[in-house]
Amino acid sequence: MGNRPIHPSGGWDPVIRPRPESTFIDPMSKTANHWEALHTFNPAAIVRDGKVVVLYRAEDDAGAMQIGAHTSRLGMAESADGIHFTRRPEPVFFPAEDAQKAREWPAAWKIRALSSQKMAPMC
């Protein structure tokens, strides 16, 4: 099957897919954000207390439609059978007003990107 994603029961619908209706109040902008509207990917699963627990990366639909223009957050879902998952309504890990603010907030990544462009050419 090559690089095809894992799907339940041999079908081609992903177990966890983008969900545009999911919103939470973003602590950065203080506005409602569709935190898993654009992409869901990078899942990691463990079995804990008899349940499959999946952490997954989700991207919002804010910003330009290009790589790096969206905020990523981590969602969590649980399942008793590994096929039918119940997601938490809000992300479990996300940028916030905390000690990591300088590394996470939009201006911080733009400054780092610009500063890396000023490096001496490699030839």
Number of helices: 2
Principal-axis shape? globular
Strands of the widest sheet, in order across it, are 3-4-5-6
- As a whole number of angstroms, the C-alpha radius of gyration is 17 Å
Summarize model confidence as the mean pLDDT.
Answer: 79
Oligomer: single chain
Structure description:
The structure is a single chain. The chain has 123 residues and is α+β, with helices and mostly antiparallel strands. 13% of the residues lie in helices and 27% in strands. The protein has helices at 101-104, 106-117; strands at residues 24-25, 32-33, 39-48, 51-59, 72-79, 86-87. The strands form two sheets. It has a four-stranded antiparallel sheet with strand order 3-4-5-6, with no helix packed on it. A two-stranded antiparallel ribbon has the order 1-2. The radius of gyration is 17 Å and the shape is globular. The N and C termini lie far apart (41 Å). Residues 108-123 have low confidence and may be disordered.
Task: Throw out a few tags for this protein.
2 helices, 6 strands, alpha+beta, 123 residues, two-stranded antiparallel ribbon, globular, single chain
Topology:
Elements: E1 24-25, E2 32-33, E3 39-48, E4 51-59, E5 72-79, E6 86-87, H1 101-104, H2 106-117
Antiparallel strand pairs: 1-2, 3-4, 4-5, 5-6
Structure summary:
13% of the residues lie in helices and 27% in strands. By secondary structure, it is of the alpha+beta class.
